[in-house]
Design brief:
single chain; mainly alpha; globular
Length: 203
C-alpha cells in the first residue's frame, strides 16, 4: 500500500511538472490542458482551478452515466493535481522568460520527458483515478460505444472548445496525440520488467 501511494504521489508530481512545462512552452498542449488554459485566459481563475472545476463536473457526469455514487476518492487526485499545476505555473515558471524557439522547444521536450514516466507511475498505483481517465469507460458502459472511439470523440470536442477559446492548440498538440499512447505503453512494459527483476511483482 505504501508503495502504491508513493507511485501515486510521485506520479502526480511528475505529471503536473510535465503539463506545466508543456503549457509554458506555448507550442501546444493536450486537449484537456489546452481547455483549462483557455478557460483561464477567457474567464479568469487559475489553470489549476479550472482543472478542479471541469474534472469535478466530469466526476459527477461519470456517476450519472454509470448510475453510481460519485468516485469521491478521485476528488483527491483532482485537488492535488490542480494545486500542483498552479504551484508550478504561478510560483515557479512565472519567474522565467521563454521567448526563443530553442528555449521553448527545450521546455516542451522536458515536459514530455517528465510527463510520461509520471503517467506510468500514476497508472501503476491504481489509486483514485482522474475522472477524465474514467470518462471513456463510463461512455462505453452507458452507450456501448467502443472505448477508443469514445476517447477520440470527447478529445475532439474538448480540442474544439480549447481552439474556440484560444487555448494553446498548436503542432505540439498533434505530437502529443500521436506519441503519448505508444510511449506510455513502452514505458509501462519496461517498468513492469524492472519490477519483476526486483521481485516486486510476479510474472
Amino acid at each position: 500500500m505504501k508503495r502504491r501511494i508513493g507511485y501515486y504521489l510521485v506520479g502526480l508530481f511528475f505529471i503536473s511538472f510535465g503539463v506545466t512545462s508543456i503549457i509554458s512552452a506555448d507550442l501546444g498542449a493536450n486537449p484537456w490542458d489546452a481547455l483549462f488554459v483557455a478557460m483561464s485566459r477567457s474567464f479568469g481563475l487559475s489553470v489549476g482551478n479550472w482543472m478542479i472545476i471541469i474534472c469535478t463536473l466530469v466526476l459527477f457526469l461519470n456517476a450519472l452515466m454509470l448510475q453510481k455514487i460519485p468516485d469521491f476518492p478521485a476528488f483527491a487526485t483532482i485537488i492535488i493535481q490542480g494545486f500542483l499545476v498552479d504551484f508550478w505555473l504561478e510560483l515557479f515558471f512565472v519567474h522565467f522568460s521563454f521567448e526563443g524557439i530553442t528555449t521553448r522547444l527545450f521546455l516542451f521536450v522536458l515536459g514530455f520527458i517528465v510527463l510520461l514516466p509520471g503517467v506510468v507511475l500514476y497508472l501503476q498505483a491504481e489509486f483514485a483515478p482522474n475522472p477524465v481517465d474514467r470518462l471513456m469507460l463510463a461512455i462505453n458502459r452507458r452507450f456501448g460505444i467502443p472505448v477508443g472511439v469514445a476517447r477520440l470523440g470527447y478529445d475532439l470536442v474538448v480540442l474544439g472548445l480549447a481552439f474556440i477559446f484560444e487555448g494553446p492548440v498548436f503542432f505540439g498538440t498533434v505530437f502529443l496525440a500521436i506519441t503519448s499512447g505508444p510511449v506510455i505503453q513502452i514505458l509501462q512494459k519496461k517498468f513492469r520488467k524492472i519490477q519483476m527483476k526486483r521481485g516486486i511483482i510476479n510474472v
